[in-house]
Inverse folding.
């Protein structure tokens, strides 16, 4: 098998006159947790539906686990696990019955199915409550059961659509722990959509950011963060008078210059260097004590990308 | 395919049972249908007597039971999955389109067939108990086969129609309403035609219709009339099942 679990080329989907996904080209290496980030309505769920063969692409193509989703969707669905927008659990079945149904649907042999259900429920601490109807469970428990269902038939790829949406902090942490331990033990590739940047930063080895169906950036979280880090500079020292700020703001390589809490904060344009700015500060009589690159979180990167996209539009 | 079909039917049956988890819920859910159907299986046979086993009235069980049992549940099949947000996950599974579709149709049809058989047995027991003729009176083989075929074809009619309605309806409530209208419409249409014949149409036409019924329909005998009905039902069922098969395609469900 290829070392790519998933590949899309110019994947596009229109709903009438609205373009939900616009020429998306992605490569997801096998065995990784890949974060697919974007605000609401960015096209994340539509992309997942196309990857599962539930929606036909208007243009472009996608290959999942080596199968073309337009022509071999049955093969894809047999090998992929999915946790979609909602848990998809049957509220009037017990936890065990929910897994039993999807185990049968995946044609798992009886013995293997029973053992796997026991293994997953035990690992998630849900085994003692397996005979309870799912509608009596908390949202966090249901989400974890849905995660177990997605991984029940040992899929090579798990497509998880916002698996922690609407969960409280503790429930989210439990889902994260379940996910990381299962991925580590079963070497499954995870394609995870989220708009929770902390979650993506914590779990994902690679991320892609989309907006209005278009890919804005892709790479390792630290690579994307490094790009943003280069643009934020904090200078300790002083004094930072209004003339100093005006002179900095007039420069082409400075996007913003502000003083606060005894520090000067500069937002630089992409590719701008720090040294000329320090020279300007010294020329203005500022006593420069320390110059630091700001540490950008993935959320900073995301906000910056959304901002750039808006200003470019 | 059969294994997948059985899987979907297993889920449908378990889910229906899970909706009434307590004994009290079960009693409330079953008491009304059981009373209605018990009435249907006891009163007419006792009124007709030993001739029940040859009477066209026996067909009433094979008509009303499948329509009632399936009509009560089938609207939920897809509209319910959509409303409870379980349809996406079901469609994302390995199950083929046809296994999902026919599994959802098959579960209530099998249930209705089972209830129909039980009620026919009850009706025969009632007739033999109250109108004992010195020996057991039973349906002839041909009569039993026709009654079962009628129940099966009407069950498939209600199930395929219900699935089509449920696939298009955004909510279970809307699907149920549409299903009720679809099942009642033929009855209302027949009543309207009957009333029209009795009171509106000219005497000349009414006498011609009466003559047709007496010579062609009554003269033909129950078996032949039933055979024609079964053939018509078979053709209608095949059309509805084909329409449901064409309608139920994963990608099409997201287009609307």
């Amino acid at each position: 098998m290829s070392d790519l679990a998933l590949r899309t080329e110019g994947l596009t989907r229109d709903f009438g006159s609205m373009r939900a996904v616009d020429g998306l080209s992605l490569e997801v290496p096998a065995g990784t947790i890949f974060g697919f980030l974007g605000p609401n309505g960015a096209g994340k769920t539509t992309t997942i539906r196309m990857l599962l063969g539930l929606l036909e692409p208007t243009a472009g193509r996608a290959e999942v686990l080596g199968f073309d989703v337009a022509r071999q969707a049955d093969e894809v669905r047999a090998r992929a696990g999915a946790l979609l927008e909602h848990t998809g659990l049957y509220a009037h079945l017990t936890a065990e019955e929910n897994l039993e149904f999807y185990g049968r649907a995946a044609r798992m042999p009886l013995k293997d199915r029973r053992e796997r259900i026991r293994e997953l429920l035990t690992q998630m601490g849900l085994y003692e409550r397996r005979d309870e109807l799912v509608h009596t469970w908390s949202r966090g428990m249901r989400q974890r059961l849905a995660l177990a269902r997605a991984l029940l038939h040992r899929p090579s790829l798990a497509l998880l659509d916002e698996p922690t949406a609407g969960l409280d902090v503790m429930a989210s942490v439990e889902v994260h722990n379940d996910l990381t331990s299962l991925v580590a033990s079963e070497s499954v590739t995870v394609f995870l959509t989220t708009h929770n940047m902390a979650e993506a930063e914590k779990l994902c080895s690679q991320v892609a950011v989309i907006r209005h169906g278009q890919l804005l950036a892709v790479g390792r979280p630290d690579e994307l963060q490094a790009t943003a880090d280069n643009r934020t500079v904090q200078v300790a020292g002083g004094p930072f008078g209004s003339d100093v700020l005006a002179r900095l703001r007039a420069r082409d390589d400075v996007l913003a210059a502000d003083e606060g809490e005894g520090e000067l904060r500069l937002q630089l344009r992409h590719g701008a260097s720090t040294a000329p700015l320090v020279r300007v500060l010294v020329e203005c009589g500022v006593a420069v004590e320390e110059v630091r690159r700001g540490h950008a979180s993935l959320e900073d990167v995301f906000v910056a990308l959304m901002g750039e996209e808006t200003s470019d539009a | 395919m059969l294994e997948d079909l059985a899987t979907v039917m297993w889920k449908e049956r378990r889910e229906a049972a899970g909706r009434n988890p307590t004994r009290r819920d079960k009693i409330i859910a079953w008491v009304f249908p059981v009373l209605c159907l018990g009435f249907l299986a006891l009163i007419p046979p006792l009124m007709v007597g030993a001739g029940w086993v040859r009477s066209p009235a026996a067909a009433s069980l094979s008509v009303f039971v499948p329509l009632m049992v399936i009509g009560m549940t089938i609207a939920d099949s897809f509209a319910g999955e959509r409303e409870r947000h379980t349809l996406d996950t079901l469609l994302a599974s390995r199950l083929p389109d046809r296994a999902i579709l026919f599994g959802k149709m098959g579960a209530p049809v099998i249930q209705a067939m089972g209830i129909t058989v039980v009620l026919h047995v009850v009706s025969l027991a009632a007739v033999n108990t109250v109108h004992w003729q010195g020996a057991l009176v039973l349906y002839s083989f041909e009569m039993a086969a026709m009654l079962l075929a009628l129940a099966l074809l009407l069950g498939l009619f209600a199930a395929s129609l219900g699935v089509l309605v449920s696939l298009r309806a955004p909510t279970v409530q809307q699907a149920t309403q549409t299903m009720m209208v679809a099942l009642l419409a033929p009855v209302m249409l027949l009543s309207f035609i009957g009333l029209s014949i009795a009171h509106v149409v000219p005497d000349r036409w009414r006498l011609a219709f009466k003559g047709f019924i007496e010579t062609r329909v009554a003269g033909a005998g129950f078996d032949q009339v039933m055979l024609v009905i079964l053939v018509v039902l078979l053709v209608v069922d095949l059309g509805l099942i084909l329409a449901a098969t064409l309608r139920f395609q994963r990608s099409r469900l997201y287009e609307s």
The longest helix of chain A spans residues 169-186. Chain A has a mean pLDDT of 87. Chain A has two domains: 4-222, 231-294. Chain A touches chain B through 35 residues (CB under 8 Å).
